[in-house]
Amino acid sequence: MRDTVDDVIERWDAIRPGLDTEPIGVVLRIFRASRLLEQGIKGYFDEHGLETWEYDILATLLRAGGGNALRMSDLAGAAMISPAALTHRIDRLVAKGLVTRATDPDNRRLVRTELTAEGRGIAEGLIEGHLANERELIESLSPNESQQLASLLRKLLMPLEDDSLKAKRS
What we know:
It is a single chain. This protein is mainly alpha-helical. The longest helix has 27 residues, at 143-169. Helix content is 70%, strand content 11%. It has seven helices and three strands. The chain has a three-stranded antiparallel β-sheet.
């Protein structure tokens, strides 16, 4: 089996024999897979009138458990986005009636975001379909292959995430 990345590597090998193209086989495949998976996930949420980021925030709040309220700083970290981007996104979700935002009663300098009943209903109502869609997107992998790939990607991501955190602290 060949894919488009094989063609890229082959072309490099033809014009630059001896060039170490091994990283291309990994990085470009991850990049392409990411874009194609993102398109498949976006398509699912488009069918339900949501942006992918909207569901990500709703699901992050749902996963918080308890009263499902999170401080903005905790929500930004859990949703893996910058606080500035989060503020804009929360404004949009508040306008749609899917979340509320209120000052933390224990510390008035902090703002907490919480799902509304409608937001909770959307998040709970879409999770099974979302996971079925993700399963379909990776159906070419056996369950064992899926677990192996998840393990390898975790191994790849851990030092990259550590480096990213270190850079943010600098």
